[in-house]
Structures are given as structure tokens and as C-alpha cells.
Amino acid sequence: MKRVDQLTFTRFAMILLVLFYHGTGSYYMGFLDFFPFSAILRSAPTAVSYLYVLSGFVMALVYFKPGEVLDIAGYWRARFVRIYPLYIISFILTCLYYYDGLFRIKPQKFIANIFVVQAWIPAYAQSFNYSSWSMTVEFFFYALFPFILLWAAKQSSRKLVWSSLGLWAVSQTLHYVLWMRYYPEFRDFVLYFPLFHLSSFVMGVVGGIWYLREGRSSTHDARTILVLLFASLFLIGMYTAVSSEVFPFLPHNLQPMAGLLAPLMALFIVALALDESRLSRAFLHPVLVNLGETAYAIYILHVPMYWLYERALTDFGVANPQSVFDITFLPIMILTGFVVHFYLDIPLRKWLKKLVQATAIRVFVFDLAVSLLTAFFIFKVRFPLLRDYRSFQDMERLVIWLSFLLLPAVSLLIGACRRAVLEKPFLQWARVTALSVTLGNTLMAGVVYVVYLFGRFENFPRSIFLYIWVIALLASFLIRWMFSAFKTEIPSPVIAVESMDGAGKKTA
């Protein structure tokens, strides 16, 4: 499928609105701080909705291939490799900002962010990097997309359009009722719960399928395309401005984030994809395309970068740090996004792709889950009295940290989760597994002991680490035995895509 690169820059434009909304571009906003631009520049929640629609459109362009099959597990691995590396880097940077109180943060909140499920738990939706709640939503979309594609391939284009509009209408009605009754009491649920954003993604998927089936293969009047393009953009902009500053009783600010304007956004995206005017050719300029490519890096890193940079200006005694921040942060963030995307994220993705292909992912995930759950529960079991347990809570949180960072690193380094190792006879994979678990837990105990020697903890309970080692070793053997006995890494199920044309006629 040929890339539709004129859409790429729009992603950067939307991320720019997010940065403005989060207070990182006040100096530059000052030049346009008058109606209607003032309202549009603060429309980041609407911009987030646009990104969900665009995500669905692009997913459809890449993966909707009638007559072919979709490797579901391969698709999920590709999405994981695309999103998770920078996500976890942003998480670590956020933890660096909170370093002085990190041990006081609830382990549940920490685990929810590691597994990118924080938006499903309203109390944790804005924890750590507060902008990363949207990654929970994206991973939810990625999990559902193969099945949405399977259903959509069997429907006519007309039915898809009407179904997406029906889902959108139901979703908007439900969200509006919840907003009127439960906002702001249940703010984090109403705003960030992934289900409320699904209609935006589906609208984008349907737009992408229509474009592939009928849009790109038909002759369209260039003027009509331009009219639809500018009309949809005008209506989105005018509604945003009017609802924010003229008729505030209309849904505005955070409320449209649930996809209120998604149909207009889908129309704009499809029109821009079909457009061949000077506007689209301008958007194809390499500089603009590259800016669009850096959008995810800018988005996921801007909150911890904001906090760390603001603290650094104050700690280094910079004169008038707020003014320096207002002028310098936005260009620094854009430059950082460019460098991170092209010189860190892309090489990291290539390396991780090779690693994932060589690793038994299910085994690795089970190992990680066992490590985290053991670290989470072992202190409660070992110290049933609340008074005793509280004295070890800081140590518990350090152990959870190390279970997430250190133990998987040792496992990958030694190769305990490599398919080539797990397919060998019992004694060979058992020896590698025992070495990995023993070395990893020894290093973890050593790190905790060093922290204890520096006076951070009152005591060093050796039995804790013995229990963790025994549980991890037994669980690791059981997981690998199941892998060997039941062949859990057999080729993933595939979807046979059967399509219909616009008239409802089946095609191979």
C-alpha cells in the first residue's frame, strides 16, 4: 500500500496543540491569542480525538488486504515494538523526576503503568506521565483491530459507514449522559476510559476501508475534494471556537475528546488523502513529513521533559527561569523528538524486533508477571502484621522495581527465553533457566543489601529473597515445561479476509 504522506504532518500539528494545552508554548501562543485562534490553540482534547481517527485510518491502509491473511500475533508484536520502547523510556524519565518519593508510590500504580492498563483504572489514569493514558487506549485499539477488520471485511462499504455512525451516536449519547450526571465527581472515568474513545478509532478504520475500496480507484472532481477538505476543517475549527468562547453550554474543552467531531475528522482525513492540490503537495515536503514522524516521540516524552527541564532551570539558578522555559522548551522539545525518533527509536525498534522474533514472548511475559506478582505479595505473606509490613514497604517497592528492570534483563542476556534454547532437551534449558533465575535474584538481593548498608532500610530479611528465588525457579520450570509439553508457541491463528465491494458483492 502506497503511503499517504500528506497526512503525516497533521499528526505533528495535533501534537503541537497538545503541547500548547499543557503549557509548554505560552510564549509562542501569545502571537495568536485572540478569537478564534485562541480557542483553537487550546483544543488539544479535540486533537487527541483526531489522532485516534487517524490511527484507525492508517491501520486500515496498512492491514486491510482482501484475499490475504493477517498474522494476529505478528501484528500485535509489530504494534508493541512500535509503541512500547519510547513509552517505557518516558516512564523511566518520569520515575527519575519522582526519585525522592518513588518508594512511597503504590506498587499497584507502578504495575498498572508498566503493563499500560492505567486508563482502565480511573484512580490511576493520570498517574506518572499523565499524557500516557492515551497509550492504554491505543493498545486497546490494537487488541481489537484484527477482529474489527475481520468483521469489516465481510460488510459492504455502505453498511460500514452506517454502522460506524450508529456506534458513534450511541457512544456520544452515553458519554453525554455520564458527563452530565457524573462529571466532575468521576472525572478520570468519564474522560479516559478506553471504551469511550472506540468510536473515533472505528470511524477512522471505516474511512480507510472506504478509501481503499472506492476512494482511490474512482475519479473524483478535484474541486469537490477541496470543498470537502476545507468545509470539514472549517466546521471543526468553528465548532471548537464557538463552543469554547461564544456558546460554552455546548460540549467544549475536554468533552469533545470522546469523539464528538469524529465524523468531520474522518471526512477531512479521507479528503486530504484523495487531494492532489498544491496543499497536499506542500504537506509532502520532507521537512513536514519528518516532523510528522517525530510526533509520537514528542508526545510521549514531553511531560517528563517538561518537569525535568523546569526543575533543572531552577536548580541551576537560571535568572527568570519561567521566561527561559517559555521561550526555549518548545524548540528544544521538537529537536529532542527529532533526535530521539531517528537516532534512538528507529534503531531501538530494529533491535527489539530481532529480539522479539528470537524470544518466546509468552514465556517472557509469564516470567515477568510471576516476578512482579511474587514481589508484590511476598512481603504481605512474610509479614502478616500490618505494623511489621509497613516497615518493609520501601524495600518492597525497590524489589518490585528490580523485578521489572533487572530480572528480565538478566533473562534476556543469558537467553533463558530464547526459542532456540527452549526447544532443546530438558537438561539444557533447565540449566540455562536455573542460572538466569539464580543470577537475577542474587543480583537483586545484592542491590537491596547495598541500599540497606547505606541506612535506607531498617533490616534485611534474607528469607524474603530465598522465598522469591524458590518461587521464581519453580514457576520458571513449570512455564517452560508447559511450553515444551503443549507447544504454546505454535504459529498464531490467522484471519482469512473476505471482502465486499461497495455494492455488497463478495470478492475474493
Jot down its keywords:
508 residues, mainly alpha, 2 domains, two-stranded antiparallel sheet, 22 helices, 4 strands, globular
Report the end-to-end length measured between terminal Cα atoms.
18 Å
Average residue-wise pLDDT = 88
Q: What is the helix fraction of residues, given as a range?
A: over 70%
Overall strand count: 4
Count of discrete alpha- or pi-helical segments spanning 4 or more residues? 22
State the shape: globular
Strand content: under 5%
Low-confidence stretches: 488-508
Structural class by sheet pairing and helices: mainly alpha
| Main beta sheet strand tally, sense and closure | 2 strands, antiparallel
CA-based gyration radius: 25 Å
Can you walk me through this structure?
With 508 residues, the protein is mostly helical. It has 2 domains: 5-306 and 498-506, no CATH class; 361-486, no CATH class. It has 22 helices and 4 strands. The chain has helices at 8-21, 26-29, 37-41, 44-63, 72-97, 107-114, 133-153, 157-182, 187-192, 198-215, 222-245, 262-274, 278-283, 286-293, 295-315, 321-358, 361-382, 386-390, 393-414, 419-422, 426-453, 462-486; strands spanning 69-71, 494-496, 499-500, 506-507. A two-stranded antiparallel sheet has the order 1-2. A two-stranded antiparallel sheet has the order 3-4. Helix 4 packs parallel to helix 7 (133-153) and helix 17 runs antiparallel to helix 19. 39% of the residues are buried. Residues 488-508 have low confidence and may be disordered.
